[in-house]
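During the reporting period the student researcher (J.K.) took over the structure-prediction task from the postdoctoral fellow and processed the backlog of single-chain submissions. One of the processed entries is reproduced below for the supervisory committee.
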Amino acid sequence: MEYPPLFRHLLVFSSQVGYIREGGKESARTPETDRKVEDFGYVHLNTTIRLQSREKTSLYIGVGPYANILADNGKFKNDQYAGYEVDKMNWGIKTEAGFNHPFSDRLQAGVNCTLLLPVSAMIHTDYVQDKLRSLGVYASVGYRLN
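J.K. obtained the following structure tokens:
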């Protein structure tokens, strides 16, 4: 059956649970050869609403909320960050684009490009709040339950 152009796209929800590491490198205060690296592990939860094509290989774009829950001790490795605190949870908006290709009725693989735009700070002091954006490209394999 051929769908009219308006109905060739579909809105779907996609929820994910995963593990990510967020952080960065500091080189402004020290020589380039002595970069300070700090990163922290998080359980990552999100739900996006996707505008998705109905073709066999479906293309999509999506947006929705995310939450990161600290999964390690949240302690800095370098003394120069004394006074900074890592928040136990941070949240923001996830934007994404990608595609999925089915290999059978239930098995599919895909690629996803994600930009996490924070609303709350990841680390802070009494005077500074650092909101760290993350860009990622992911490959996935999925199994449809229904």
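The committee noted the following: Residues 5-143 form one domain.
J.K. will present the remaining backlog at the next meeting.
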